[in-house]
Amino acid sequence: MKLDIVITSDRTMITNHHGREFLGFVATGPPIGMPERLWLWICAPKPKVDKWGRPLEAPYGLRKIEAALVDAGFNAAIIDPDHLGPYLRHAKVLMIGHHDYFAMASPSIEWWLLTGSEPVNRRSFIRLMRRPEVREAKRRGLKVIVGGPAAWQWLWNTDYWREFAIDTVVDGEAEKVVVELAAKALNGEELPLYVYVGSDDVPTIEEIPEIRGASVNGLVEIMRGCPRGCHFCPVTLRPLRYYPLDKIERELRVNASAGLDKCILHSEDVLMYGARGLEPNPDALLKLHTLAKKYCKTLAWSHVTLAEVKYAEEKHRLITKLTEVIYDEHQQYLGVQIGLETGSVNLAKKFMPAKAAPYPIEMWPQVVEDAVAILHDHHIVPALTLILGLPGETEEDLAQTAELLDRLKDYRSLIVPMFFVPLGALRDRGWFLREHLKEGHIELMRRCLWHSLKWAEDIISSFYLKGAHNALLRWSLKLFLTYVKRKAIEIEKWLKEGGWSSVKESVKEPVALPTIAERA
Amino acid sequence: MSDLVIELDARDEVKKLVEALKLNPSARKITVYVAANDSIRSIERIREFLVNNVSRTVVVYAKEGAQDEA
Lengths: 520, 70
Prior knowledge:
By secondary structure, chain A is α/β, with parallel strands linked by helices. Chain A is built from 17 helices and 14 strands.
């Protein structure tokens, strides 16, 4: 088989993470306490491929690009990175997507800053681009187009842009523009260096193509955009669009026909599916979940918002009703990632004024606690993310967040602190770097770590990796947790003896951080 | 709503782009032509503009013939 257009990414992307999406986050860290090869096996095992080297499951974003190109009549397919060689001898275009090319997004940048060691996602991507077959194809005139949610990182990594001779960087929803770019590349026309897809040029629901091959862990999109308008989030810049159920069903069917019996419903807030304003639509949500369970033994939510959890349950008993649809002999828990962001009402008012709606933003800490309690009661396991270093953050803001964490200690959850990354409406703000860390940040990270360690073992044993078939993975992760606990105790002792300043001096600054990283 | 096309040579600062946009505030698509002989350097020169843009479509082309700095 020959292809004109090869679509791919590195191993940390072309994997199904052992069928456990959350393990993908392990790729955001540097390999600590074990060889990189073992680290990669835990988070990014090689996927099954067909005889042509096409992965049976591939990242949903790449599937959309593949569908757009195939629908437009191009000879294109996603190829596993270990099978690129023969294709690159003939292909004219290589398209690459990534969530975090250079480990500049959270939490990668945070692990990198704290440990001084490059995360494996970055290492893996750079290794891919330096492969002889990629370089050789480039010398022969291969056009390389990169995109995906981390496309913005190329603006800060122009040395790699030069080294890898990237022809075009596409930032934004690319389904429409990629067809035009492919035609230009194949016709030998001039390609743009950079394309940013503004809100007027994003595809309509009808223009969004439907995936033609299975997505990693059965992920299917149910909507795009988010009306809450949080200033740090790029998704809110996009118009709100809901997929109709028949479109969702066709994608569920693609995954099911590939043998997947699980799905992840993807949205910035699954509970907003079909909503009118911020008012949830119980009928649409119940229909959506009933439909998904028709094709999937198990399902997960990518994201929800805490305000919607509280409101949907209090007004409509919707969390109860939805879990009644979801839970059966195949599934007794549900995983989801949720932005807690901050416990500070002041920061919440400033950067996410609609995050608590329909409740007043002054109620944000209470909304968080009530929602997390509802999730706990319904066996929904959240990975809660905090943002450290929002512009203008004070010690008082940090203290309020610490206080909120204490109120959450009895609720099953992981809490992951993330350094502020200037995105969305805050793209022009300064980066949060190691030298900006205060004692309050260290204390928050310490509390998050112990909270997550406390609950991680329970989650791994009782929910996430139950059963004999997960024994090896469960054992590896428990071994890692034991190592992290031991290290955490050592670091705490070190902090008590020398304070944070001694830690700051002992960690090397990563070399590739943005050159204009000073705080605005 | 309109399109804005602007050409930048090696001497042009990013403010030329910002000024042009001020004169055409309704422009929803901006096409920028930069010098081709070191096009990535040109991207670096207008990075501040690209980073700050959140809503408009921006397309940057390298233009043959435009002179960049050595």
